[in-house]
């Protein structure tokens, strides 16, 4: 009979250990994700008077966002810019991923590493490198002038929204390539061999087998680039100039020079809403493509 209390004590101890481990697993996400998000949501309902935050609930920040003629067009323009970056990333990334997936042996992973290494480099250094290429007297203009293709340097490649889109597309290209590459790697090779044995041409095989089975990677890559592009403020600050002002720079200015954290938090919540919609839409599209395949 003395074994019963011991067994009960062991069960309680194991249950307590499981509860402790579960608490530790949820503690870090709760501390570093949920708490900051809740703080942003709460601060969006406060206001600033004479340089001090007034902790009194108000809707003035959201009324300013929807009522001011500046923020809605800027917000929509930034969303469109992020969509352009995602489209460019997929259009450039898919052929590269297809080329990588077609390689064999060590060459495949060595070539893939070439596109992974830039992710380990400093973000600022990469932007400066792109500025050195696209600038008025950058590497590209110098080459074109030397070859006689142009008479005066091109200035439309820097300090505007086109420069922001192009720079973001280049910086975020690995995030589009890798999901597509992984999706292509998961396609069974026997399907491609069967298609070739049945007499299908490479283009028909691509359209009927490779492309449909890799659409899930395309959706993930596009969502990655969209989410990373829509909130970026460093790239627009460095290559956008006054004509490349984005919503991310507006949010940054509220937390910096304007010192209006509640309004910055409200603007951040609007960005968060778009990001959540994009993630949910990508997840639904990804599940739909997975179900079809």
Name a few traits of the molecule.
2 strands; mainly alpha; two-stranded antiparallel ribbon; 293 residues
3D architecture notes:
The protein has 293 residues and is an all-alpha fold. The chain is 76% helix and 2% strand. It is built from 13 helices and 2 strands, in the order αββαααααααααααα. The protein has a two-stranded antiparallel ribbon. A hairpin with a 2-residue loop joins strand 1 (47-49) and strand 2.
Overall pLDDT, averaged? 88
Q: Give me the count of strands.
A: 2
**Derived structural class:** mainly alpha
How many helical elements?
A: 13
Q: What pattern of helices and strands is seen along the backbone?
A: HEEHHHHHHHHHHHH
Estimate the helix proportion, in percent: over 70%
Strand content: under 5%
Radius of gyration, in angstroms, nearest whole number: 25 Å
Strand order of the largest sheet: 1-2
Short synopsis of the structure:
The chain has 293 residues and is mostly helical. The chain is built from 13 helices and 2 strands; from the N terminus they run H-E-E-H-H-H-H-H-H-H-H-H-H-H-H.
